[in-house]
Design brief:
Layout (H helix, E strand, L loop, with lengths): L1 H13 L21 E10 L18 H4 L7 H8 L1 E5 L4 E9 L29 E3 L2 H4 L7 E4 L4 E4 L4 E4 L18 E6 L7 H14 L5 H26 L4 E13 L17 E5 L9 E2 L12 E6 L8 E11 L3 E4 L11 E7 L6 E17 L2 E10 L2 H12 L9
Parallel strand pairs: 11-16
Antiparallel strand pairs: 1-3, 2-3, 2-9, 4-13, 5-6, 5-8, 6-7, 7-10, 8-9, 9-10, 12-13, 13-14, 14-17, 15-16, 16-17
GO biological process, one term: proteolysis
Protein name: Inactive serine protease 35
Pfam family, one: Trypsin
Length: about 400
């Protein structure tokens, strides 16, 4: 009964909310022409040190007041920010310069963030409205199965059979790649059947023990010690499954792409607008993934709501789902009060809208959850949880990273 109620609740939350003043046309995925992002030249760089500490909150971010004194970004500025680094599994690194074609500037929104002293992080606002996904049927099915865990402690989301989208700060602090990112791994959700596979391995061990019964006692003792260790490890995994906690199938990352707007080095601070990264897995998975979409404005969000799931560190090994309304937006950021803790950064923020000329509804990723920031809103300090929007230019860049060219990136 509880599972049925929980399923009904999630279904209701996922459905499009339409009041009397809004029509289905307002909540539809609109096909948009995407600018072309063309790779121009690739340079080899020195290998990273991989010595940075994970950094969640930026020291300085130019806000609406300081933006008034700055000119709009030129095409060359955008091309510089959208150029990107690629770091490979062997530790080598390249820089690729890009050209933007067919770009049309978008109208300026009413809000951007400004630097402020780092204060107490308040990522849960009032009553905690997060839901731990414990039921196996939900956990291993779309959309929750698209959430992944990074070995650096963040979350991410599957966007193809071999690609994961996450936050750039999960692997890079703006100056160097963080500790542990050289051998970065991605954990995919996996529920274990009780005893499945374990007895077969035990049977093989028993056969080996019979065939080697005449070996020295010291070797037998070592075997028994190793067996006990494996039994304890297997027992812990089975207990996690019994408790509703997932196990993870860990996969190595083949390469990582980060925009230069974030990886600026020592000369400039990273820009929050570019806090996103793409990871290519060493081997493909067989799970259903979530497609990319271009972020609509707040007025085009059903009920003004967004959704995302991640692995919050205060709920060990549990997948945590939340939804909330967006409070404000800029061209590149969504400001909201979704309850979230560290570990959930890098999660894919998604919507469920109707597909054009079709009767079905579809979820797409429209932003990446970046974390907690203090921002200046019309001269007043406010704290928000912030997500980086997938704009047409960012869609073009991520699509280029996935496919190697822009042939499949003309519409989003």
């Amino acid at each position: 009964m509880g599972a049925m109620f929980f399923g009904l609740m999630l279904f209701t939350l996922g459905w499009t909310l339409i009041d009397g003043s809004e029509s289905e046309q307002d909540f539809m995925w609109h096909v948009r022409k995407i600018p072309r992002l063309v790779s121009e030249r690739t340079f080899h760089l020195t290998s990273p040190a991989f010595e940075a500490d994970a950094k969640m909150v930026l020291n300085r971010v130019c806000g609406i007041e300081c933006q008034k004194d700055l000119p709009a970004p030129s095409l060359s500025d955008l091309e510089d920010s959208l150029s990107y680094e690629t770091v490979f599994e062997n530790g080598s690194r390249t820089l690729t310069r890009v050209k933007v074609q067919g770009w049309v500037p978008e109208p300026t929104q009413n809000l951007t963030s400004q630097g402020a002293p780092v204060r107490r992080k308040r990522q849960v606002y009032g009553t905690d409205s997060r839901f731990s996904i414990l039921d196996k049927k939900f956990l291993t099915n779309f959309p929750f199965n698209t959430a992944v865990k990074l070995s650096t402690g963040c979350s991410g989301i599957l966007i193809s059979p071999t690609h994961v989208l996450t936050a750039a700060h999960c692997v890079h602090d703006g100056n160097d790649y963080i500790k542990g990112s050289k051998k970065l791994r991605v954990g995919l959700l996996k529920m274990r059947n009780k005893g499945g596979g374990k007895r077969r391995r035990g049977s093989r061990r028993n056969r080996r023990e019979v065939s080697g019964a005449g070996r020295e006692g010291s070797q037998d003792s070592l075997k028994e010690t190793a067996k006990a260790g494996r039994r304890r490890k297997g027992s812990a995994r089975r207990q996690r499954a019994a408790d509703g906690r997932p196990s993870f199938q860990w996969t190595r990352v083949k390469n990582t792409h980060i925009p230069k707007g974030w990886a600026r080095g020592e000369s400039r601070d990273p820009a929050l607008d570019y806090d996103y990264a793409l990871l290519e897995l060493k081997r493909p998975h067989k799970k259903k993934y979530m497609e990319l979409g271009v972020s609509p404005t707040i007025k085009k969000l059903p009920g003004g709501m967004i959704h995302f799931s991640g692995f919050d560190q205060d709920r060990a090994d549990q997948l945590v789902y939340r939804f909330c309304s967006v409070s404000d937006e800029s061209n590149d950021l969504l400001y909201q009060y979704c309850d979230a803790e560290s570990g959930s950064t890098g999660s894919g923020v998604y919507l469920r809208l109707k597909e054009p000329d079709k009767k079905r509804w579809k979820r797409k990723i429209i932003a990446i959850y970046s974390g907690h920031q203090w921002v200046d809103v019309h001269g007043v300090q406010k704290d928000y949880n912030v997500a980086v929007r997938i704009t047409p230019l960012k869609y073009a860049q991520i699509c280029l990273w996935m496919h190697g060219d822009d042939a499949n990136c003309t519409q989003g």
